[in-house]
C-alpha cells in the first residue's frame, strides 16, 4: 500500500498493490481496491496501457515474466535466456532497466541480501552498500516541478540509461571535507565514513531542544548524485549554479552568534531543500534548511551514530 497525508494531515491510502514474484498484480487485475490508481507500481516503474512496464532500455511483461526484447548485454549472461527478467530470480535480484548500473570501475546492479564481505576493497564495499540502500528504499525517486508540470523521476535509472556520459564516484580521502560534485569531470567525491550534523533551523541555537539534525553517508552520496542528475538532465542547472547568493542579503540565514548559513547558489538550495529533502524523507532522516554542516565519523554508510576515535593509553 502507498500512503499520503490528506488536507487534514491524516494518512490515507493512495494505492494498493499485491504482486506475484514477477510483478503481476493480483488485486483486481491491474487496479486497486483501495485508494486511487497510480501509474508507478512494481519496482517503481510506470505501468503502460498495454500492461507492460517501462524500464527505460526495455519494456517488461509481468504476466509472463519476460522482456519484450532481448537483453542488450546478452553476451555477458550466456547461461541465461536473454528474455528472462532478473536472471529468472526476481526474489533475489532486480534488473532496474535491462542494462547495468556503472560507477567508477565497477558494474553495479541491485542485489537483495548482497554479501558485502566478498567485496575486498573497502571503498567499493561501502559504495555498493550505500547505492543498494538508496535504490532499495526508492530514496532517489523524486518529484520535480509542481502542478500539471510535475513529473516523477527515478534518478538512478536515468543516470544508468544515459549512454553519453559516465558518472564516476571517487573516494573523498580528506576527513572533515565536504563531498562534492564536479561538473567538469562528471564525478563526485564520497566519504563513506562521515555523516553530518546541522541546525534544522539555522536561525536558532544548537542548544535549543530538537534543533540538531543528522544525515548519514548514504544521504550525502544521494545528495551528490542529485547534483549529477541535474547537471546531465536539467537544462536549468547552469542557470541555477550561476545564480550566486553571496551578495544577496535576502538569502542570508544568520545563526544567533552571527554565522551566515546561506546556500552559495540556487542549485545548492534547490538540491538540498527540494530534491534532497524528498530523499531524506524516504530515508527517514532529518531534512535540511541551510548550508551549514559539520562532518563527523560514523561506523557505517547508513549510520548517524558518532564513532569516537580510540584513546591512547597513558604510560
From TrEMBL:
Gene3D superfamilies: RHS repeat-associated core
InterPro entries xrefs: Rhs_assc_core (IPR022385), T6SS_VgrG/RHS (IPR050708)
Superkingdom, natural source: Bacteria
Name of this chain's protein: RHS repeat-associated core domain-containing protein
The species this protein was found in: Chryseobacterium polytrichastri
Amino acid at each position: 500500500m502507498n500512503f499520503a497525508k490528506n488536507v487534514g494531515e491524516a494518512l490515507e491510502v493512495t494505492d494498493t498493490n499485491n504482486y506475484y514474484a514477477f510483478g503481476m498484480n493480483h488485486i483486481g487485475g491491474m487496479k486497486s481496491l483501495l485508494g486511487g490508481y497510480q501509474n508507478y507500481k512494481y519496482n517503481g516503474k510506470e505501468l503502460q496501457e498495454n500492461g507492460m512496464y517501462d524500464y527505460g532500455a526495455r519494456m517488461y511483461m509481468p504476466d509472463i515474466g519476460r522482456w519484450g526484447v532481448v537483453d542488450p548485454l546478452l553476451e555477458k549472461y550466456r547461461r541465461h535466456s536473454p528474455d528472462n527478467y532478473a536472471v529468472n530470480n526476481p526474489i533475489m535480484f532486480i534488473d532496474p532497466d535491462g542494462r547495468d548500473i556503472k560507477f567508477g570501475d565497477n558494474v553495479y546492479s541491485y542485489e537483495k541480501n548482497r554479501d558485502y564481505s566478498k567485496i575486498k576493497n573497502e571503498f567499493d564495499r561501502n559504495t555498493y552498500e550505500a547505492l543498494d540502500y538508496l535504490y532499495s528504499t526508492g530514496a532517489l525517486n523524486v518529484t520535480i516541478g509542481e502542478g500539471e508540470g510535475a513529473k516523477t523521476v527515478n534518478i538512478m535509472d536515468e543516470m544508468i540509461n544515459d549512454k553519453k556520459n559516465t558518472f564516476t564516484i571517487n573516494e573523498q580521502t580528506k576527513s572533515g571535507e565536504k563531498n562534492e560534485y564536479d561538473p567538469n569531470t562528471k564525478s563526485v567525491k564520497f566519504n563513506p565514513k562521515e555523516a553530518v550534523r546541522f541546525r534544522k533551523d539555522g536561525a536558532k541555537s544548537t542548544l535549543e531542544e530538537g534543533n540538531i539534525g543528522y544525515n548519514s553517508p548514504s544521504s550525502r552520496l544521494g545528495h551528490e548524485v542529485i547534483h549529477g542528475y541535474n547537471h546531465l538532465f536539467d537544462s536549468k542547472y547552469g542557470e541555477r549554479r550561476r545564480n550566486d547568493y553571496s551578495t544577496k542579503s535576502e538569502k542570508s540565514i544568520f545563526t544567533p552568534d552571527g554565522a551566515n548559513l546561506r546556500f552559495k547558489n540556487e542549485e545548492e538550495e534547490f538540491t538540498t531543500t527540494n530534491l534532497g529533502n524528498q530523499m531524506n524523507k524516504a530515508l527517514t532522516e532529518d531534512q535540511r534548511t541551510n548550508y551549514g554542516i559539520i562532518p563527523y565519523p560514523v561506523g557505517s554508510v547508513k549510520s548517524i551514530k558518532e564513532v569516537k576515535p580510540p584513546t591512547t593509553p597513558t604510560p
